[in-house]
Specification:
- The protein is an alpha/beta fold and 255 residues long.
- The chain contains nine helices and ten strands.
- It is globular and about 55 Å long.
Length: 255
């Protein structure tokens, strides 16, 4: 388990209460409660298709809940108008499973894009932030490359660098190690922890990867059948008689 020194248990960055979300007859989330404290990495662990990504989309205001409340940085997301929601999202970094880079732009242009689009930052400051973000993810030399020239792990790092450009207070990671080889997975896990320590971000990490969960989580919330079956440290969650959790562990066994 990581040891993070910047967690402030007195400060809530995200509070989700009695969250319900269904698509037709498919009830995906059935009464979710979750708190993320300042400086904390919370891993939401569960099989693919269990509603993990739906949860972070509701938190970011990309989906509306059927019932329940979501507070992010002391703002009730459901009550925000378009302008307020856009301002809130600028404080949130999204690391998408696909990295979501623009193929027609160089690495530098990809990183500059959110700054140029969403702020009045001067060119000198933009250059400094690009260099800082690339240095933070260990890819300073890739600044002039195209996404097609990068490996999957490198694209994932550049995607994270692009979120860091805006200096977010929150990070939402959607399956950060999906499709990567074991060595690159370790590098991405280390990077998540480095971002945590360097930028003092609070994070939700959506994954079904037990190695990722064990390496990055201050706290794990196990999502099963639309509800959190158990919450605590990695060891606490898997110290259980719940056959569903035991089955999940053995199916995704850590070698």
């Amino acid at each position: 388990m990581p040891i993070h020194t910047h967690i402030d248990m007195s400060k809530e960055m995200i509070r989700v209460t009695d969250l319900h979300k269904a698509f037709g007859d498919n009830e995906v989330l059935r009464g979710i409660d979750l708190i993320v404290h300042k400086g904390e990495n919370v891993v939401v662990l569960g099989r693919s298709g269990t509603g993990k990504s739906v949860l972070i989309k509701v938190i970011a205001g990309l989906l509306k809940p059927d019932r329940g409340t979501v507070f992010v940085l002391d703002e009730e997301v459901e009550r925000l108008n378009h302008t307020q929601l856009r301002a809130l999202r600028l404080k949130i970094g999204f690391s998408f499973q696909s990295s979501a880079l623009y193929d027609s732009m160089t690495v530098r242009e990809n990183l500059e894009f959110p700054l140029v689009r969403n702020s009045n930052v001067r060119r000198k400051e933009i250059n400094m932030r690009v260099e800082e973000a690339l240095e933070a993810v260990g890819l300073s030399k890739a600044i002039s490359q195209m996404p097609s020239e990068l490996s999957g792990g490198q694209r994932k790092r550049i995607g994270i660098a692009r979120t860091l450009i805006m200096r977010p207070l929150l990070m939402l990671y959607d399956e950060p190690t999906a499709g990567l080889d074991p060595i690159t997975c370790i590098e991405i896990n280390d990077l998540i922890n480095e971002v945590q320590e360097r930028y003092h971000t609070s994070s939700i990490i959506i994954t079904h990867d037990l190695t990722c969960a064990k390496a990055t989580a201050d706290r794990v919330a196990m999502l099963l059948d639309g509800q959190f079956a158990k919450e605590g440290s990695f060891e606490e969650v898997f110290d259980t008689d719940d056959e569903r959790i035991i089955s999940f562990y053995h199916y995704n066994f850590i070698t």
